[in-house]
Design brief:
The protein is of the alpha/beta class and about 325 residues long. The protein has a domain of about 220 residues: NAD(P)-binding Rossmann-like Domain (Rossmann fold), CATH 3.40.50.720. Strands 3-2-1-4-5-6-10 form a seven-stranded parallel β-sheet, sandwiched between helices. The protein has a three-stranded mixed β-sheet with strand order 7-9-11. A two-stranded parallel sheet has the order 8-12. Helix 4 runs parallel beside helix 5 and helix 6 packs parallel to helix 8.
Length: about 325
């Protein structure tokens, strides 16, 4: 690994996490090369970087081998964030989900191997599926649902990404670091694809009913995107990181009903909280998980990392950001 003056190549560089990662890398004096096909990313996330001497952006797909090769040839580290994201997108476009995740990761690993780049692969807590042992640890067995449920196709595709990345590490000695993201939130996140926090906050600020899918008892742990970025950058530089999977997420558990109530209270909204059956929100037979709680001991042991911001602070930041968008 190169210490200092590194060049990072980000796939999905115009996305929510990619844009925050770009900010942190540039603030540290390193260089960013980024691509995004803008399927779920947005130019609004990167316009303030355009013209920065250490930033270059290309609107392109990760299947564009010419652009991928050019960017990777200049890079020390590839952070592969490009993927189908959000439950709504996953359920409505299962072919796009599986093809984007599996084929895209395969292309990233091939170009990384040719150019001897370290690769960080963004995975997801979805791979834990219907696990009932809490908190979720990286070496736990996993239980997925039936192949007839498209949600599990997303989980399986991300598992294949991890398997493939670790296979490149074992067989070819490529520095590969898969990391599993739990619910990551912060400014610039879109609610378009089912992300719960921006959706709740926008509904509350607009005086609309806050729609809780299911009965609201499902529990999640939310982590600020800036804390997540700190962990990603730590994994990018640590010599002992490759060859293992790392959970990155918050550990403060909250039910979705409680989350909605907090948003109403913090926005001083008159919005009512309403329940929407999963069959109406997504599709008949949709399955959800009651709890998502990460064991972050592995990343803490390696990096000394733990989240710094609690849920109230994160929600306050997102509410301020969303109010700014309205005014």
């Amino acid at each position: 690994m190169v210490d200092g003056n590194r060049t990072f190549f980000l796939t999905g560089g115009a996305g929510f996490i990619g844009s925050h990662l770009t900010e942190a890398i540039l603030a540290g004096g390193d260089r960013v090369l980024a691509i995004d096909n803008l399927a779920t990313g947005s130019m609004d996330n990167v316009t303030h970087f355009l013209g920065h001497p250490n930033h270059r952006f290309e609107q392109a797909s990760i299947t564009d081998r010419g652009v991928m090769e050019q960017m990777a040839s200049e890079a020390d580290v590839i952070v592969h964030l490009a993927a189908a994201v959000g439950v709504k997108l996953i359920v409505e476009h299962p072919v796009q989900t599986i093809e984007t995740n599996v084929m895209g990761t395969e292309e990233v690993l091939r170009v990384a191997l040719r150019n001897k780049c370290r690769v960080l692969i963004a995975s997801t807590s979805e791979v834990y599926g219907k696990g009932s042992k809490f908190p979720f640890a990286e070496e736990d067995d996993v239980l997925l649902g039936a192949t007839s449920k498209s949600r599990w196709g997303y989980a399986a595709s991300k598992m294949v990404d991890e398997f493939l990345g670790l296979a490149y590490w074992r067989e070819f000695g490529l520095d590969v670091v898969p990391f599993r993201l739990f619910n990551t939130i912060g400014p610039r996140q879109t609610g378009q694809y089912g992300m719960v926090v921006p959706r709740f906050i926008r509904q509350a600020l607009g005086g609309e009913p806050i729609t809780v899918y299911g009965d609201g008892s499902q529990r999640r742990c939310f982590c600020d995107v800036r804390d997540v970025v700190t962990a990603i950058l730590g994994l990018a530089g640590h010599p002992d990181a490759p060859g293992r999977v790392y959970n990155i997420g918050g550990t403060e558990e909250v039910s979705i009903q409680e989350l909605a109530e907090r948003v109403v209270e913090m926005t001083e909204s008159d919005s009512q909280i309403t329940k929407v059956p999963y069959s109406e929100a997504y599709a008949p037979g949709f399955e959800d998980m009651e709890r998502r709680v990460p064991d972050t001991g592995r990343v803490h042991e390696l990096l000394g990392w733990k989240p710094k911001r609690d849920l109230r602070e994160i929600l306050s930041d997102v509410i301020s950001y969303e109010r700014g968008r309205i005014s």
